[in-house]
């Protein structure tokens, strides 16, 4: 079984990579792996506590950050949504029932790129939710794209099409990045390297540049002086 120190080291590196990641796809992959390691940290800490009546473990709560700072809040991913389209817009509909009174559009942050979008929802209660969709069926533009919200928790994301082409589906293809979990008997450091290598091998050019820069800064403690395109392979 991995030691607590090993797991915290992996958690620190994952959080470092997460803070440096700039693309939604990389952020989502790292968020999922951070949740896995956070749960393992809690399991090991719980096993080390010798109490007669231990409290039940809450696997959804984030433990304090391994580096001693504030805990990194990981949003809950939204998987249920609907969509339709017009000549100029694609609209995505979702509902977050946990967001009640006081919920409005200012609690939603929309990020739009060419063929992907992400909306981060901060409920008045403090809970975080996120819908992130990539490999869209067509190109979109941030100019004219907006998000609306109602007090009942319903959210409408209006994405401005880059052209008037009719989309066959919301997504062109499924993302196929695999995120291997760190097994109990697997070295956490090696598991982290396997995760990053898998993301690098299956990612596009932008993902490769992001991972290479993050890895360089993690190893050297300083920002690279060369342009993004000069990074080699991992």
Q: What is the topological layout?
A:
Layout (H helix, E strand, L loop, with lengths): L3 H17 L3 H25 L27 E2 L4 E4 L3 E7 L12 E6 L2 E7 L5 E6 L6 E10 L4 E8 L26 H15 L2 H16 L14
Parallel strand pairs: 1-6
Antiparallel strand pairs: 2-3, 3-8, 4-5, 5-6, 7-8
Short recap of the structure:
This protein is α+β, with helices and mostly antiparallel strands and 234 residues long. Helices cover 31% and strands 21% of the residues.
Q: Summarize model confidence as the mean pLDDT.
A: 76
pLDDT under 50 segments (min length 5)? Answer: 57-61, 175-180
- Strand ordering within the main sheet: 1-6-5-4
> Which structural class should the secondary elements be placed in?
alpha+beta
Shape: globular
Q: What letter string, H or E per element, gives the SSE order?
A: HHEEEEEEEEHH
What does this structure look like?
The radius of gyration is 20 Å and the shape is globular. The chain is built from 4 helices and 8 strands; from the N terminus they run ααββββββββαα. The longest helix has 25 residues, at 24-48. Helix content is 31%, strand content 21%. By secondary structure, it is α+β, with helices and mostly antiparallel strands.
């Amino acid at each position: 079984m991995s030691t607590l120190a090993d797991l915290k080291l992996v958690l620190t590196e994952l959080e470092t990579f997460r803070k440096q990641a700039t693309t939604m796809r990389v952020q989502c992959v790292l968020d999922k792996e951070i949740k896995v390691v956070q749960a393992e940290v809690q399991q090991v800490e719980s096993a080390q506590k010798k109490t007669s009546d231990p409290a039940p473990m809450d696997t959804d709560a984030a433990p304090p950050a391994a580096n001693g700072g504030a805990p990194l809040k990981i949003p809950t991913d939204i998987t249920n949504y609907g969509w339709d389209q017009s000549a100029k817009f694609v609209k995505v509909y979702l509902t977050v029932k946990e967001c009640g009174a006081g919920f409005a559009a200012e609690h939603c942050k929309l990020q739009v790129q060419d063929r992907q979008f992400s909306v981060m929802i901060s409920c008045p209660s403090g809970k975080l939710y996120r819908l992130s969709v990539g490999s869209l069926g067509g190109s979109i533009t941030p100019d004219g794209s907006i998000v609306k919200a109602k007090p009942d928790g319903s959210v409408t994301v209006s994405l401005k099409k880059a052209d008037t082409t009719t989309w066959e589906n919301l997504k062109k293809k499924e993302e196929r990045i695999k995120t291997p979990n760190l097994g109990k008997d697997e070295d956490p450091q090696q598991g982290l390297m396997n995760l990053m290598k898998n993301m690098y091998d299956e990612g596009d050019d932008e993902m490769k540049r992001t991972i290479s820069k993050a890895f360089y800064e993690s190893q050297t403690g300083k920002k690279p002086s060369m342009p993004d395109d000069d990074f080699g392979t991992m």
